[in-house]
Predict the 3D structure of the following.
Amino acid sequence: MRILWITNLLFPEAQQILTGKGELKTTGGWILGASEALLNHGDVDLSVGTVSPLVNKLTVVKGKRITYYVLPYGKGNKTYNADYEPLWLRVRDAVKPEIVHIHGSEYTHGLAWVNACGGENAVLSIQGLKTAYYPYYYAGLTMKEIIRNITLRDLFRGTIFRGRKGFMESARWEKELISKVGHIIGRTAWDRVHTWAINPDAEYHFNNETLRPEFYDGSLWNYNNCTPHSIFLSQASAPLKGLHQVLKAMPIILRHYPDATIRIAGGDITTPKKIAGIKATNGYGKIIRKMLDELNLRDKVTFTGNLNAEDMKHEYLRSNVFVCPSSIENSPNSLGEAQILGVPCVASYVGGVADMMQGDENHLYRFEEISMLAYAVCDCFASAGSIDTVPMQKVAAKRHNGEENTSTLWHIYQMISNRGEN
């Protein structure tokens, strides 16, 4: 079967060929594992199309098992870019795909494919949904807090207000894409409802996601090997990831566990970075820095720097509890990664997260409820070595079973292909 994937990221193999450099630390590792599993599953001729600033014309890159079609980024894919349409027509004529799988609705190059080539044999898989995300972008921050913390960096790169506006603009194109495809792949009741509200005629196919390969080596969390009373967060780059809520909960947690600490994957957003010859943080970084000072948490919080999959796995396993404190999520892979390792987890009851926490509902809390967040974390701390994460780990292992998910995806492709032939 000739299959074309349209992705948001350039695969490391293609990047290495184009630049001559080794694999870089990057996100999107799960899609690499999914492509490998698909290639091993059946008679598949897989091509991957995406956009990248590394090229200035449509470039074909031959990988070991995948052919990549790299479109020049040009004017970009955050708003609609009709320049992609003739390029996609050339890709269509070269690949002649039986199935086109658009991974994610957040950017507009997938919509350009549908507008140029049609959506008859296209299926869109939902990752995030900016249509449903943007109302929660401020994540409880007040207008006063945001305005008072606008920085020089914000004036050059954009404020939190501009970030939300960008989500709103993306939502317009996202809705158009969802309305023009006949097939949608999702994995939560939440994304099913939101896509149904936009396009009730699209056929919805359920398929869980496969995680990054590094999380299938049998590694399991053990209390005796963790750092007691430590909290791990997978990212904190924007307000909707909820770091400020965890900081607000820390004084309550510290009252019961004075040695509690937080480790956060990614760069230190509170450290000023040079722009136009002047060092400055962005507005959210400034807010977090003030909170660390006001709550006397400077020595309690560590930013780890950028992490690859192996580094992330190490951080999960060394933590006492993983917290997913976002103001909105569909089904965060970070939560799945923590669960498949058997790490105790606490998560905000938002979006599709509840689907992932079935059986562990006592560690769900409303995003706004700081006391509930603190209690859930302290409950995990109090359980110490007696906490039983095996049931949740088994559920996660089944949910993220690569063979089952690939088999389901293959069945979806065959179903769509067969209907196209009738």
